[in-house]
UniProtKB/TrEMBL annotation:
It comes from Nakamurella antarctica. PANTHER family: HIGH-AFFINITY BRANCHED-CHAIN AMINO ACID TRANSPORT PROTEIN BRAE, HIGH-AFFINITY BRANCHED-CHAIN AMINO ACID TRANSPORT SYSTEM PERMEASE. This is Branched-chain amino acid ABC transporter permease. InterPro entries: ABC_transp_permease (IPR001851), LivM-like (IPR043428). It is a multi-pass membrane protein. The lineage of its organism: Bacteria, Bacillati, Actinomycetota, Actinomycetes, Nakamurellales.
């Protein structure tokens, strides 16, 4: 497909360039081949194990299968298959979508998925309720606007492409997370939530009042330019095509998820889990709770900073009204809806709840839209309180494994009981 699309583009036949004008058929064919190859890999790598039995008191008892404990997603083959479906949809559906849905994929679904991943570290893993998370998103956006020369103060070393602002945004958001967490993380529960809420509002109000720094409600001027990647032998310039941003965002999300997945199973991840379950017990066990909570705040803030860079470079223009309290609450809702502590759940929750309002625009009247969204959230909390894709630990807390066959002997032969005759 690459060859015939490039050939058609070079000859000017029904295509303006490589991968252009393939149509839905071409992209669905690519998705089908991708799934064929992926399922072949899953089948080739699946491990078949024989069922084990336990012999106790003369009775044979079947041991529960290890995949049962994880429910639908406990089987590695099932998890790999679902991952293949997600990748196929992410890679090959966007080119077939309309320009409106491509914009929704990038500016709403993709960016809020990245924000949910970051907040999941704070809320899902460390158990800290943060209602000012959107403030770090704003900081990342304004740092990007400053570094590209779109704010009144100009960087003394000259301007740069928005993509090169990512490490600077991460560093500034890390420092902001430490500044917020240092004096406040000794608080717990509702008190911590109130302080973080205040921090988010402080950042927004400062952005409005600091006219000489942020340009107030007028936003960046000139607008934040689109990114340019110049590798010497090739130059790639982003434009108004949202597909370019979507695939770049997809790469960023994959990198962040891989790093966070490793972090979840590290010593730091286990410390966060201990703090979330019982902070007093974790501290008594030797866990430096303050240090690990501060680390969770800083890492979550850095992820939000990356989202801010991407948002600023994509839309070009933004104001303090893009970073209101309601957006912080929405990100918390996405994490809870998807499943606190679950990386796939946080991403699924953000994707579903950002797609649903846009889908309902053409289905129900505007005044009824919020009622339908509220009904979906309410039904989810009633019938699946652990979230859309709950974490294994959370699922175990809400649904005990009573459905498994017990390993204890339920009946003892009469000749072997305590009253048996010698």
């Amino acid at each position: 497909m690459y060859l015939f699309s490039s050939l058609a583009g070079s000859l000017g036949i029904s295509a303006s360039g490589t991968w252009q004008n393939l149509g839905s058929g071409g992209w669905m064919t690519a998705a089908a081949f991708f799934l064929f190859a992926g399922t072949g890999f899953v089948v080739a790598t699946v491990k078949f194990t024989k069922s084990k039995t336990i012999i106790a008191a003369g009775l044979k008892l079947a041991a529960p299968k290890s995949s049962d404990a994880g429910g639908l997603f406990g089987s590695p083959a099932t998890a790999k298959t679902l991952l293949l479906l997600v990748f196929a949809a992410a890679l090959f559906y966007p080119p077939t979508a309309t320009s409106f849905w491509q914009s929704v994929l990038v500016t709403q679904i993709g960016i809020y998925v990245l924000l949910a991943i970051g907040l999941n570290v704070v809320v899902g893993w460390a158990g800290l309720l943060d209602l000012g998370f959107i403030a770090f998103y704003a900081i990342g956006s304004y740092v990007t606007a400053y570094l590209v020369g779109s704010l009144p103060p100009k960087p003394p070393w000259g301007t740069m492409s928005p993509l090169f602002a990512i490490p600077f945004a991460i560093a500034v958001c890390l420092v902001a997370g430490v500044i917020l967490g240092g004096p406040t993380l000794r608080l717990r529960g509702d008190y911590l939530a109130i302080v973080t809420l205040g921090f988010g509002e402080i950042v927004r109000i400062v952005a409005i009042n600091a006219d000489d720094v942020t340009n107030s409600t007028r936003g960046p001027s000139p607008q934040v330019p689109h990114p340019v990647i110049n590798l010497g032998f090739t130059r790639f310039e982003f434009g108004l095509d949202q597909l370019q941003y979507w695939y770049l965002l997809l790469i960023i999300i994959v990198i962040v998820v891989v790093l966070f997945r490793a972090l979840e199973h590290s010593r730091t991840g286990r410390a966060w889990a201990a703090i979330r379950e019982d902070e007093v017990a974790a501290q008594a066990s030797g866990v430096n709770t303050f240090r690990f909570k501060l680390l969770a705040f800083a890492i979550g803030a850095s992820t939000s900073g990356i989202a801010g860079v991407f948002f600023a470079s994509d839309v070009g223009f933004f104001t303090p009204d893009n970073f209101i309290l309601n957006n912080s609450i929405l990100v918390v809702a996405y994490v809870v809806f998807g499943g606190m502590g679950s990386l796939p759940g946080a991403m699924a929750g953000a994707a579903v709840l950002t797609w649903l309002p846009e889908f309902l625009k053409d289905q129900v009247p505007a005044e009824d839209r919020q009622m339908w969204i509220g009904a979906v959230v309410l039904l989810m909390m009633i019938f699946r309180p652990g979230g859309l894709i709950p974490a294994k630990r959370r699922s175990a807390e809400l649904h005990d494994y009573d459905h498994h066959e017990s390993l204890e002997v339920s009946a003892v032969p009469a000749g072997e009981g305590m009253g048996a005759k010698a």
